[in-house]
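Q: I'm a student working through a structural biology exercise. My instructor gave each of us a protein and asked us to get a predicted structure, then write a short paragraph describing it. Mine is site-specific DNA-methyltransferase (adenine-specific). I'm not confident about reading structure output yet, so if you can add a plain explanation after the tokens, that would really help. Here is the sequence I was given:
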Amino acid sequence: MMDPDKNSRICDPSTGTGGFLSVSYEYLLEKYTSTDAIEREPLFDIDGKPLLDNNGNQLENVLYSGDLIDEDARKHIDTDMFHGFDFDATMLRVAAMNLVMHGIKQPDIHYQDTLSQSFIERFPNEAKDGMDIILANPPFKGKLDEEDVCPEVLRKVKTKKTELLFVALIERMLRVGGRSATIVPDGVLFGSSKAHQQLRQLLVDNNQLEAVISLPSGVFKPYAGVSTAILIFTKGGTTDHVWFYDVQADGFSLDDKRAPIKENDLPDLVAQFKARDKAVAETEANDKTQKAFWVSKEDITSNKYDLSINRYKEVVYEEEQYDPPKEILGKLVSLENEILADLKALEEML
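A: Happy to help. First, here is the predicted structure for site-specific DNA-methyltransferase (adenine-specific). I'll explain a few features afterward.
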């Protein structure tokens, strides 16, 4: 959905093991591989039987060479495309190894608290107006030294809550026209505090808030059951409307096992996201009972910049048909008589 290209500068300010960055590179390889350079290897289990997906199709290992990436772009990818920051040294080692093993020669991975005022001092080209794309799943709760938080971030949103501070930080890190997809807890969307409203107003009035994608509460199990959403916005400009999508299934069960299932809204999410501008233009197609719909800026501002999908989604209630009470009572009496007869039979056996 973010569709990076070979000249993008991509960052994760709370990079962890570097998953967003490594998958971005995989996406780029697929995007810049010619049809003739794609290699496919069918997958088999330990007994030599073909491995099948939920639909019964043969699973394949598809290899992309990235043969359409020129030498200059290759140098940029190896040295200045991927930037990651975290203050967990173990995670950083894993992230660096992850990217190198994917084929990136010199990933820009650093030990750094990006909320700290030292961030802009040490990395001025990354900390402000420096990134084309930011992908992040920042920590929702954690220890925070308020005195060390960058004053410029605090001016955007005065709070101790890391989930709010990180969104403000990301907005500062992006160049004008740069885009972000950030995972936030649902509280960011509807919180009533001054800081919550201040952040949402910043996104809507001073930037182009493109989409709010609601995720089911089990997507991060077994690690966390918190309900989350994805905020997608472009830095600069203003918001005319916001596109919403209600993801109800992501291809895996929503319990701790996270086993594969057939239900998966993600392909439809991507397809509808790419066609959203056309859907917005056709106002008659804006059915708020569907998974995807849009809301005007006027509606959002009149609701104190509330971005929760349940505020705007219309629920259709279907009338339930029940048997008449007398008929239900008759069925209960019949069941009770059967139970008494069975109990009597058991008593005679004893």
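A: Here are two points you could use in your paragraph. The longest helix spans residues 325-349. The chain has a mean pLDDT of 92. It's a good idea to check both against the output above yourself.
Q: Great, thank you!
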